[in-house]
Amino acid sequence: MPEHLFSATPLALGRLPRTHIVWSADNRVTAAVTNEEQHDCGHRMRVSAAGLPVRADDAAIIEASCAEPDAFAGLFDRHAPLILRYIARRVGQSSADDLVAETFLAAFRRRQKYDTRHRDARPWLYGIATHLISQHRREESRQLRIRLAAGSAPEPADPGHGDRGVAAYVTANAVRGVLTAALAGLPGAERDVLVLIAWEQLSYDEVARALGIPVGTVMSRLSRARRRVREALARTGLSATFKEILSNE
Amino acid sequence: MNDLDLITELRPEMPLAGPDQLAHARARVMAVVAAQPRAPRSAAAGPHRSARPGRLPAGGRGGSR
Asked: Are A44 and A118 found together in one domain?
């Protein structure tokens, strides 16, 4: 049960109606909702049939935070785990803690320019994080080199199938090494697109939003990155068997 | 399985961080947030608002970044 219900009318948002910010017992913002029938600026807000606060979308929280900055905590609590994991995957855990704070500080500073037609702020946050990662390319390269040196896959306790299983494991690791090296060798802009799609499962549209580029540019960068990866695999001579090897792991 | 699937397989698997792991970053962000004065209703700036009264915004509608 929310401990406190705070109401504010952010006149700065034009004709937005009253915005209700719901605080949980541990002082975290859990919702920021408005009453839909009062809403006449074109943004659709979610409310329950009984008029009770429901989980607000990101745009509502960002809007609310323009008048009531503390509401921004709701955005952090919702998305910081995802953004931290993304950053950690790319530059390692040691830098990720700082960069996730930097990401949300930048988001807070830019919140008044957020396009509230986009109810889901994840692509926006991914974009800010990606921009910060681009300033840490050396750390990203180091992270990939470490992964390459350590071997990408843990050795299975039981490789199975005797010598054949061991051979498959060794070859699969070799393929992973080639892929890691290929990823490390990509131009940063291509790696950004590839990782957002393959690792973070963003759509083309979301990547375009995140990086502030046209969808066509996303597709062309992805195409180039994939071609480079395929060429790297082809050069190893492993490409004839890697599908079977990895799918049989 | 295609090359994109292979890159996905390369993704380091790690669990989502809990509140304890994020506590330091959260405290850092909220310190800045708390220092931000609540905007007076008449002066608060919002999305898609022209910086100069009487003039249209140069960039049209606000972008997402």
From this structure: no
Domain range for A217 is 138-247
Please name the residues between 5 and 64 in chain B that touch chain A, using a CB distance below 8 Å.
6-12, 14-18, 21-22, 24-26, 28-30, 32-34, 36, 38-39, 41-49, 61-64
H or E segment and range at residue B26: helix B19-35
Q: How far is CA A142 from CA A91, A198, A211, in A?
A: 8, 20, 23
pLDDT digits (tens, 9 = 90+) for B47-65: 544 333 434 444 434 444 4
* Partner-chain residue, chosen from A69, A127, A152, that has the shortest CB–CB distance to B36: A69
Q: Hey, are the CB atoms on A84 and B22 less than 8 Å from each other?
A: yes
Percent of all residues in chain A with a pLDDT value above 70, rounded to a whole number: 64
Q: Final residue of a domain: which of A18, A50, A70?
A: A70
Distance CA B33, CA A43 (A): 25
Q: Which has the closest alpha carbon to B27: A3, A125, A98?
A: A98
Q: Are residues A119 and A152 in the same domain?
A: no
Q: Is the pTM of this model over 0.80?
A: no
- Of A105, A116, A179, nearest to B7 by CB-CB distance is A179
Cβ separation B41–A198 shorter than 8 A: no
Domain boundary residue among A70, A92, A109?
A70
Sign of CA pseudo-dihedral A108, A111, A114, A117 = positive
Lowest mean pLDDT among A6-15, A74-83, A97-106, A144-153: A6-15
Residues A90 and A121 in one domain: yes
Tell me whether 0.90 is exceeded by the ipTM: no
Q: Are residues A53 and A25 in the same domain?
A: yes
